[in-house]
Design brief:
The complex is a heterodimer of chains A (236) and B (699). Chain A is an alpha/beta fold and 236 residues long. Chain A contains eight helices and seven strands, in the order H-E-E-H-H-E-H-H-E-E-E-H-H-H-E. Classes of the chains: A alpha/beta (236), B alpha/beta (699). Strand 2 of chain A pairs antiparallel with strand 16 of chain B, so a sheet runs across the interface.
Chain lengths: 236, 699
């Protein structure tokens, strides 16, 4: 995701040819990747500041050179998943913790609000402004619902009854849409006799995953001085 | 009605097995696809365990029928000594009801087709019999009850005995759940033993006969879980028939299912429903096979052929399914694992490969196949592959049949396939009073002589050394399957194999010499290594050329010993071996130096300790220490597939501009943990494009 938004700066770099086996890409997970050794030496190896997301960072730097990145989907690796809630939280927290650093390193002084549209598989719009610090919000229904709820509470505390009601209305709309979409996804992805309890659990885990992303992003922003709010991190 | 009422309240409602059963099936399919050599003796312990547990479960089910007072089981089965088969699960059930016929019928309906159920039922209230000794005494006294009587000491009480009070259902559940867990564990053990070590075995064998034999077991599990597996029977039926609607092999099955569907008042847990549950499982497995064919959009066409093994009436009654039963014709570069010839079929340069059992008299079928393929487009050259294990005599008829076809079959290969050994053949051989190993040996001799005669007659235009190697390899598999005495009479002796292999694989020459010297199969790891090397040699369509690029694999590990072992194990069986493996230990507590140094089968493995904690540090250390052109990274919690390195190397070789190549990460099969299952769902839903639209709103 993060790389996707950055890769937009280099137009013409993406999608060399539509081949199902191997495609030019812009992010390769660090668990399953091979470099030419001279490429790594050229770009100066992994960034030691990046405790997590070092693979994404390296891919960005490779993308700025003339080397190409390829994904060959027949190079398969089975990955062990987190098996407890704590591990799940820690993993997604870690994913988003270093995002502010990467954004700050590669996109300086940018106010960026990305509106994603997944059906067209890319970005719909992107506003770029000069801004004193890096501020990136990736909009999602999850995020907008919760930010709406925050503003609602804020307005209520200032005594703005009507404004808070408006915010609450917007938040509830977003939340309803989000929940409905979740529900539809479950309906689509799980087979008919799938258990109701499992669905609820999956929703809960999705919620925890997003909370972990947000808290990780906030903590990282305190540490690195750039705010990146992202409740929409694809699993790679 | 009591029985039905009981079964509606499902005792396995919350069991873990039920929830993870599809995953078990997936596992099972995977292991079937990936297993190479299999002897039933190696499976015996785990199968026996599964049967033991299964018997206990059945006993518990019987016990929980309200009218059943106690359940007895044969002592040997209870210990797990039984041989897996149809007649293993024998029970004595004491029933409280007077209407014994009815309950016998009901229980027979539930379990009768599965196990040879001995209806040893006694109406206890009427007679005042409460235990087995009493029963036996009574039956001896009164010949009116002409039940089959067994000795009391061969039977063991499984459930019941205390007949005044019944076990509360919660207790039964608490007893059943651990059993189910145990079953799960042993099932996993069985699959792993089928599969060799998990995630490691690269060799693909898809053996239909193995399906059938283990399908029995699957069916047994289906019985245990019947109803629990398929809550909505009707939808399951329609789903299965929808799956098979385009499969010409399965027309009869579809008809059967349709008839089931029409019968809307299907009694729950009738024989049909059980059959259909079993069918569902088998169809899932079949689907896996079919997917192999279907994955490249090849059409599968059915041809009639006559199996000489069957009587004429049988032929009239049943239209043989060609693909499953005996013959299949595959178009070019259709990947079908399991037939050795197919994997390097591309190298032969022919267009069609025909797989055929040797006991099939193919009067017109080959002609049909040939015209079918040639009518579609340009002229194609057929290639015939015969499975000659079953009946040596009918090979004559088969080769005669080829002559009658008036087709210039250019390439003709007789390959012995020990994996195609199945119970039907064995039974046939027993009927013919021919011992198994003798016939096998004779068969190999025959094959060998045939091969030599074919070679000497010059019928074969092209017979590469690779094919002879394949032949030797199969013989080696046979050697591993059977005892050492087999070696003496085998015309293709181990030394010959070793010689052949030594010719091909210079880097393993010392191993072969050692093997040749010891001449025993005690040295299994070396043999396995040798076989892996031979297999690599066979599966590569091109002989392994020294590539211009060298690869070093860097594994960053951090206090995860078991996972690292699994990862290293997966690296042992790469189709393109790494030139160098570096294990960078970034752990704080447990160091893995001993583990790394004890690994065999990986060239140039090195252990490096990186004290600074953090993945970038470890990765940079690995990069610095690597001596090769390409540095491939893999995490310690991953296990690589067989062709991983080869696939990573390919873009580098193809394009000098490529600097970085990545692959695809798949989440492992969830083991019943909900979070893992969630992850699996997450990954699979991001992979599948059809969920994209709904996910769009989700974000």
């Amino acid at each position: 995701m993060i790389v996707q938004s950055l890769a937009d700066y280099k137009i013409g770099y993406l999608a060399k040819e539509a081949d199902s086996q191997s495609v030019a890409t812009f992010f390769l997970a660090g668990a399953n990747v091979a470099f030419r050794k001279n490429v790594l030496e050229e770009i100066g190896n992994y960034d030691l500041e990046c405790k997590t997301g070092e693979d994404a960072e390296v891919c960005i730097r490779v993308g700025k050179t003339n080397w190409e990145l390829y994904r060959n989907i027949s190079a398969r690796v089975k990955h062990q998943d987190p098996s407890s809630l704590q591990q799940l939280f820690r993993q997604w927290y870690g994913y988003s913790y270093c995002h502010p650093y990467i954004y700050k390193k590669h996109a300086k002084n940018v106010l960026e609000i990305l509106v994603l549209d997944r059906s067209s598989n890319g970005m719909k719009s992107c506003w770029e402004r000069r801004f004193p610090f890096t501020f990136v919000i990736i909009r999602s229904h999850f995020l907008s619902a919760h930010i709406g709820a925050c503003f609602c509470g804020l307005a209520w505390s200032f005594g703005l009854g009507f404004t808070s009601l408006c915010f609450a209305f917007l938040a509830s709309l977003s939340l309803a849409r989000y929940l409905k979409a979740q529900w539809e996804t479950f309906q689509n992805s799980l087979s008919a006799p799938a258990i109701f309890r499992l669905k609820i659990k999956f929703m809960l885990y999705g919620y925890i995953r997003r909370i972990a992303l947000l808290t990780g992003g906030l903590h990282g922003s305190l540490h690195f001085g750039a705010l990146v709010l992202n409740a929409d991190h694809d699993y790679q | 009605m009591l029985l039905l009422k009981h079964f509606r309240s499902d005792p396995f409602k919350h069991s873990e097995v039920r929830q993870s059963f599809p995953h078990l099936i997936k596992k099972y399919c995977r292991c079937l696809v990936q297993k190479t050599t299999l002897s039933f003796s190696s499976l015996q312990p785990s199968l026996a365990w599964i049967y033991r547990i299964a018997s206990q479960l059945i006993a518990w089910r019987l016990k929980s029928i309200p009218s059943v007072r106690s359940v007895y089981i044969i002592r040997g089965i209870a210990k797990g000594e039984g041989i897996p088969g149809l007649s293993d699960l024998d029970f004595i059930v004491l029933v409280e009801e007077t209407d014994t016929d009815q309950i016998v019928r009901r229980i027979r309906h539930c379990y009768g087709t599965f196990c040879l159920f001995i209806p040893f039922l006694a109406p206890v209230r009427e007679l005042g019999i409460y235990t087995l000794p009493e029963l036996i005494r009574r039956t001896r006294e009164n010949s009116a009850y002409a039940y089959r009587c067994a000795e009391a000491n061969t039977w063991k009480l499984l459930a019941g005995e205390d007949l005044t009070k019944r076990l509360p259902s919660r207790d039964a559940k608490s007893l059943i759940l651990p059993l189910m867990k145990e079953l799960d564990i042993w099932w996993a053990y069985l699959t792993s033993s089928l599969w060799g070590s998990p995630h490691s075995n690269p060799q693909y064998v898809c053996n239909y006969q193995l399906f059938k034999s283990i399908g029995e077991m699957c069916r047994a599990l289906c019985f245990l879980l019947d109803g629990t597996l398929l809550p909505n029977r009707m939808s399951a039926i329609s789903r299965v028939s929808a799956l098979y609607s385009d499969n010409p092999w399965c027309t009869s099955m579809i008809e059967e299912l349709d008839s089931l569907k029409k019968n809307r008042f299907l009694k729950p847990y009738s024989e049909e429903s059980i059959l259909q549950g079993a069918l569902c499982i088998l169809s899932l497995i079949d689907r896996q096979i079919y997917n192999l064919f279907d994955s490249k959009n090849y059409s599968i066409t059915q041809f009639d052929c006559i199996n000489s093994n069957r009587s004429s009436s049988e032929i009239e009654s049943s239209n043989l399914l060609a693909g499953v039963q005996g013959m299949s014709a595959l178009s070019r570069d259709l990947f079908m694992p399991g037939y050795d010839t197919t994997s390097n079929f591309k190298a032969t340069g022919f267009d069609i490969v025909l797989h055929m059992d040797a006991d099939i008299n193919m009067f017109d079928s080959l002609r049909q196949v040939h015209t079918h393929f040639t009518s579609q487009g340009e002229k194609k050259r057929p290639y015939l592959h015969l499975n000659t294990i079953a009946l040596p005599l009918s090979q004559e008829g088969c080769s005669q049949g080829i002559k009658w076809q008036h087709i210039d079959v250019e390439w003709f290969c007789l390959v012995d396939q020990p994996d195609h050994w199945h119970w039907g053949t064995r039974r046939y051989l027993r009927r013919q009073n021919i011992g198994t190993p003798i016939l096998l040996r004779a068969h190999i001799q025959e094959c060998h002589s045939k091969l030599t005669t074919i070679l000497s007659q010059g019928k074969i235009r092209y017979f590469s050394p690779k094919d002879s190697l394949r032949f030797f390899w199969n013989a080696t598999k046979l050697f591993l399957m059977n005892d050492a005495a087999f070696n003496k009479a085998m015309p293709v002796s181990l030394s010959a194999i070793a010689g052949a292999l030594a010719h091909k694989i210079p880097e393993h020459r010392h191993l072969i010499e050692e093997l040749h010297r010891s001449n025993s199969k005690d040295d299994l790891p070396n043999i396995q290594l040798l076989l892996a090397a031979g297999f690599r040699l066979l599966t590569n369509s091109q002989p392994p050329q020294p590539s211009s690029l060298t690869i070093s694999v860097v594994i960053v590990t951090c206090d995860r010993r078991e996972m690292l072992a699994r990862c290293l194990n997966s690296l042992r069986y790469q189709s393109r071996m790494p030139d160098e493996v570096l294990v960078v230990d970034n752990g704080k507590k447990y160091f893995v130096k001993d583990l790394v140094l004890s690994v065999s089968g990986i060239p140039n493995i090195r252990y490096i300790r990186e004290p600074r904690s953090g993945i970038p540090f470890a990765r940079n250390t690995g990069t610095r220490e690597a001596r090769c052109d390409i540095v491939a990274f893999i995490d310690d919690d991953c296990s690589a597939s067989h062709e991983w390195l080869q696939a990573l190397e390919a873009p580098f070789l193809a394009d000098p501009n490529v600097g970085v190549v990545g692959g695809r990460n798949i989440s492992m099969q969830p083991e019943g943990n909900d979070i893992e299952r969630y992850y699996h769902w997450l990954v699979s839903s991001t992979e599948q494009p059809q969920h994209h639209c709904s996910k769009e709103i989700l974000l």
